[in-house]
Amino acid sequence: MFRGVNSELESPALNLRPEKMADLVAFWEVALSDGVHKIEFEHGTTSGKRVVYVDGKEVIRRDWMFKLVGKETFAVGATNIKATINIDAISGFAYEYTLEINGKSLKKYMENRSKTTNTWILNLDGIDSRIVLEKDTMDVWCNGKKVETAGEFVDDGTETHFTIGNHDCCIKAVSSGKRKEGIIHTLIMDDQEIPESAE
């Protein structure tokens, strides 16, 4: 949730293009399998303008909207996840801006996502890399691209093999032996275990 009053910015200093600063009222960072996406929203309460940017690219522009409250729906990421910005009046000329991802509040979506994905962030050959495992499909993403994988059953669980550059990688899935913990996924790269990252 982000609250804006008229066209004033109530957020930390941003690295934005000057022409966008005047009506920018909210921004969010959304971590998806294909990367972290920046969503910016401009709301001109005197002009009726609404503009949505995803990763710096304009995806919606509406000028001269007489109704200042409502919703704007658009797609985010390589898999076109549905996102909606809700615009609600809270008092007088003050507005509240909330972001929903796939019909859930951003907070709920991210809580659910932390249960359905594992993320590892590491420096690989001098480049910061982000590897994401989608537990429900066993899809593996690296730096925004889905990676070709080969899965196999082993004595204590499963192994999902893939390569990144010249690096052999494997995600091992083994039972924790505890019902509440479920399956533990571990990334092994070049025979070294990589610690999981919290997003």
Give the tags.
199 residues; disordered N terminus; 5-stranded antiparallel β-sheet; elongated; mainly beta; 8% helix; single chain; 2 helices
Over all CA atoms, what is the radius of gyration? Answer: 20 Å
* Structural class category: mainly beta
- Strand % is over 45%
- Fraction of residues in H or I helices: under 10%
Sum up the overall morphology in one term.
elongated
Task: Give the H and E element order.
Answer: EHEEEEEEEEHEEEEEEEEE
DSSP strand tally: 18
Q: Give the overall average pLDDT.
A: 87
Distance between the termini: 18 Å
**Which regions contain 5 or more consecutive residues with pLDDT less than 50?**
1-18
Query: Biggest sheet, open or closed, and with what strands and sense?
Result: 5 strands, antiparallel
Tally the helices: what do you get? 2
Task: Briefly say what this structure is.
With 199 residues, the chain is mainly beta. The protein has helices at 18-21, 106-116, and strands spanning 2-5, 24-32, 35-44, 49-54, 57-62, 70-76, 81-91, 94-101, 104-105, 117-124, 127-134, 139-142, 145-147, 150-154, 157-164, 167-175, 183-189, 192-194.
What's the arrangement of secondary structure elements?
Elements: E1 2-5, H1 18-21, E2 24-32, E3 35-44, E4 49-54, E5 57-62, E6 70-76, E7 81-91, E8 94-101, E9 104-105, H2 106-116, E10 117-124, E11 127-134, E12 139-142, E13 145-147, E14 150-154, E15 157-164, E16 167-175, E17 183-189, E18 192-194
Antiparallel strand pairs: 1-8, 2-3, 3-4, 4-5, 6-7, 7-8, 8-9, 10-11, 11-12, 12-13, 14-15, 15-16, 16-17, 17-18
